[in-house]
């Protein structure tokens, strides 16, 4: 599998490294972009995603109104029902 990308930001010192590498690198994921393309619609959420599918999948957590949130700061799990939260508090902490 050969990918040709013409929009790669040029390396400042290209002569120090071989221009082409035949081995695909798992560390070559483009994380340099500081502008995530897809942000969660909920301003209080603040989650951003590089792929729309990821955003849409995440958005499902907001579909149901989870008004019962674990008060533990390090937990913050959300539940649809109060009894679920109570069960979590009794058994999960
Ligand atoms: Zn969100
Ligand atoms: Zn909890």
Explained architecture:
The protein is built from two helices and four strands; from the N terminus they run ββαββα. With 93 residues, the chain is α+β, with helices and mostly antiparallel strands. The chain has a domain of 57 residues: Double Stranded RNA Binding Domain. The strands form two sheets. A two-stranded antiparallel sheet has the order 1-2. A hairpin with an 8-residue loop joins strand 1 and strand 2. The longest helix is centred in the middle third of the chain and has 12 residues. The model has no long low-confidence stretch (mean pLDDT 75). The structure holds zinc ion (ZN) (2 copies).
Could you write a compact summary of the structure shown?
The protein is of the alpha+beta class and 93 residues long. The chain has two helices and four strands, in the order ββαββα. It has helices spanning 52-63, 82-91; strands at 38-39, 48-49, 68-69, 78-79.
CATH overall fold name of one domain = Double Stranded RNA Binding Domain
Give the end-to-end Cα distance, rounded to a whole number of Å: 49 Å
User: Which outline best applies?
Assistant: elongated
Count of distinct strands: 4
What summary fits the major beta sheet? 2 strands, antiparallel
